[in-house]
Design a protein that fits this description.
- It is a single chain.
- By secondary structure, the protein is an alpha/beta fold.
- It is built from 17 helices and eleven strands.
- Strand 10 and strand 11 form a beta hairpin.
- Helix 16 packs across helix 17.
- The model has no long low-confidence stretch (mean pLDDT about 95).
Length: about 500
């Protein structure tokens, strides 16, 4: 029998050489990404067709892989790290985050249990305690209080805020049912969930996955201008459900809605939720990190006093490569009670001692990456001063967008600007004469298409009260004031062309 062929693993020195090539590729990509079209224009299926084929029998050099990344994959990328990516919310990165992620990948630890890597679990606890304090969430959300005594709450890094919302709902159900939900399931039509009409779709999906069903979600009206949840309408919905024999399980407050960045009245919502025995979950996925700046601490007003759970995503505006979503609970007993399960193959003395945190009990999945080392690297590499400088730059750039909108008679704000997000629409001709709503909708959508297809920038949209609205979200780590000005010029020129064409077209 011939000797078995050895797998072509790289030695440490070979890896060092190859890794330098990848780092060089990334650095070159960052240096040139601003020169590329932001939005990919490839046809559906073209990338799959280009890369399709059999797995090679023999190893290929990394140079060939990188060449094919450039040739086959880069044309099909929408460049989220582009300095003029202003759509959705920033899905941020930074040099520190990439290096931290490389550490996580290189270590390759699986942190499902404390015993499978104590550093994975304990670093996460400490980092999230540090971040909770910096955000003003109070000691209630910490694993350890500042005096060293154990706390009742704590934080965990989820993959996304969608998973955090689902996890919060499972904990709320566990508390509302006295633990019966995990053993007996949920009774159809009995339990209810509440959020504004501007809440993220992840809440609806959480209701679907939990077994409550979409009909359990009560969509509460918002103020037409501020887009904040109407507290009186929430009170009426809660009262009606209780009168009908239903049990309010969870109220979700939005701190920075996807559409306009609206911040719901957390204090008033918390008082109502607790009056009815409901869990208050605060979704601050995008805006919450702004509270690192003292002048923006208002975004988390009421959280320390009223929230049962809270989520914000460092992978949006806090320079941390996706995925990294920070989720805290005030009392972890309901969370662990809802999700804890210990098959024989996971039993170990540390877990059974009760002296450690096993994060397998803090989210739906068992396996987990070493995300904490990535966040830790970012927090230490930038420090609070660097993080605040980044956040303030985004707010200042958005303020410039607001000023440009206000100074141009063709445009009108659609909601109050919030932090790094501006919502507006094309609503008048060059003289300032108001356009019919349907025509303004058509031209606003056409304007977004013109900007996006130009390759110069990327904006996204929403609808408010049935009207089409542009969203300009600032926060990229390479974005400068010049990128704002350049994008506005493209948008303004496109508006000139669209309005000129509309004026010249009869009917």
């Amino acid at each position: 029998m011939s000797e078995q062929q050895q797998a072509p693993h790289l030695s440490a020195e070979q890896f060092r050489t190859e890794a330098h090539k990848v780092i060089d590729w990334i650095a070159d990509y960052w240096a040139t990404v601003g020169e590329r079209p932001v939005l990919s224009t490839v046809e559906p299926g073209s990338v799959a067709e280009a890369v399709d084929g059999p797995i090679p029998d023999d190893p290929e050099p990394l140079e060939q892989v990188l060449s094919d990344v450039d040739r086959l994959l880069v044309p099909g990328l929408t460049h989220w790290q582009h300095p003029r990516f202003f759509a959705y919310f920033p899905a941020n990165s930074s040099p520190a985050a990439v290096l931290g992620d490389l550490l996580s990948s290189g270590i390759g630890a699986q942190g499902m249990l404390w015993a499978t890597s104590p550093s994975v679990s304990e670093l996460e606890q400490v980092v999230l305690d540090q971040l909770a304090r910096a955000l003003g969430l109070s000691e209630a959300f910490c694993h350890r209080r500042e005096d060293g005594s154990p706390g009742a709450g704590g934080g965990v890094i989820q993959d996304t805020a969608s998973t955090a919302t689902f996890t919060a709902l499972l904990a709320a159900l566990h508390r509302a049912t006295g633990g019966r939900a995990r053993t007996e399931g949920v009774e159809s039509g009995r339990y209810t969930v509440y959020a504004s009409s501007q809440a993220h779709s992840s809440l609806q999906k959480a209701a679907m996955m939990s077994g409550l069903g979409e009909r359990a979600v009560r969509t509460i009206d918002v103020d037409a201008w501020t887009q904040q949840l109407d507290v009186a309408a929430l009170a009426e919905a809660l009262k009606a459900d209780v009168a009908a024999g239903r049990v309010p399980v969870m109220v979700q407050a939005c701190v920075g809605t996807t559409g306009t960045g609206a911040v719901d009245p957390v204090t008033e919502m918390g008082a109502l939720a607790h009056r009815h025995g409901a869990w208050l979950h605060v979704d601050a996925a995008w805006a919450g990190v702004a509270a690192l700046c003292p002048e923006h601490a208002w975004v988390n007003a009421g959280v320390a006093e009223h929230a049962d759970s809270y989520v914000t995503n460092p992978h949006k505006w806090l320079l941390t490569t996706f995925d990294c979503s920070s989720f805290w609970v005030r009392d972890r007993s309901a969370l662990v009670g809802a999700l804890s399960i210990l098959p024989e193959y996971l039993r170990n003395p540390a877990s059974e001692s009760g002296a450690v945190v096993d994060y397998r009990d803090w989210h739906p999945q068992l396996g987990r990456r070493f995300r904490a080392v990535k966040l830790w690297t970012v927090l230490r590499s930038y420090g609070l001063s660097g993080l605040r400088a980044h956040l303030r730059a985004g707010v200042a750039q958005a303020a410039r967008v607001t000023g440009l909108v206000d100074a141009d008679p063709r445009f009108t704000p659609a909601a109050p600007p919030c932090l790094g997000l501006v919502a507006f629409r094309l609503a008048a001709d060059a003289s300032g004469a108001r356009l019919p709503d349907a025509e303004a909708d058509r031209l606003t959508a056409a304007l977004m298409t013109a900007v996006n297809t130009s390759g110069e920038a990327y904006l996204s949209h929403t609808q408010l009260s049935g009207r089409t609205v542009l969203r300009w979200a600032v926060g990229g780590w390479q974005t400068t004031a010049a990128d704002v000005e350049r994008t506005w010029q493209v948008l303004s020129d496109a508006a000139d062309e669209l309005l000129g064409h509309a004026a010249a077209t009869p009917g």
